[in-house]
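Each field is set out as follows.
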Amino acid sequence: MLRAHIRWLILWWGLLGLCMAQAAEVVIVSSDRSPGYVEAVQTVVTEMARVTDKLESQVLYLPDGPVQESTALAAAKVIITLGSDALTKVLARDLRVPIVAALIPKAGFERVLREQGRKPQAPVSALYLEQPFPRQAELLRLALPDARKVGVLWGAESGVQAPAVQSALQARGFELVNGYVGGGNTLFAGLKAVLDDTDVLLAVPDPQVYNGSSISNVLLATYRARVPMLAFSPAYVRAGALLSLHSTPRQIGLQATAMARAQLQGGAAAGSQYPADFSVVLNDHVARSLGLTLDEAVLTERLRKWERRP
């Protein structure tokens, strides 16, 4: 009798869990369980609960299993994906559910959409990983006023953004120096082409160029050439880049939540966006070794003041 009762309880709790999953209005799908992804997830969950009463949220992590089989996805009113792998898995379900895709580079987002081979049935908006290029160019002007030539290493995915970068740099008096990786050009060849004729290296996200196996070589080469690097991740600053201009997982989570809430409130899709808020991180040791006198807080405030201009 007791065993039968226990089996009934297990079945009841399983059905309750399924109903809760199906009732979740917001489903967050994360590509990873690394600290940055977890912080972004927790920010979304906390912010959704704070601003929206009785809102059910559910979190799915790709490392935990095949999330594309989850019944929660089809029942959601909006899905937030974190990372390109999560977006790929969710799009494969071909659901009629709006998607907000965060923690993904612009070029990576466009590639994932192309690879689906069909137009999604519901709006898909991106919150890009990288900062808007005018903001990056302005930070270069503030931090390195004597610099004139800005080098960029392009991969197959990021190269389509070269015109936008060139426009932002030219508007602030910089000249773009291009280097290419892939298509017969090695990382070493691309780096040499850039570092031989540039004052600063601007890192643009591209997995072909910047990844776990290449970043140490890139940073070592820039350090030896005494070429400072403006990166898109604070981890690169800890590893030897001069500066990073990025949005923290919390800042990304807050903006992704706002985009998702607009969908829940019945508004039109906000459209893809660059991060609204940002952080600047400085490597003081690298700055001193390059003979630069920089202050992280001052640079941040001056860049924020530029953003607030009329």
The chain has a mean pLDDT of 89. The CA atoms of residues 230 and 243 lie 5 Å apart.
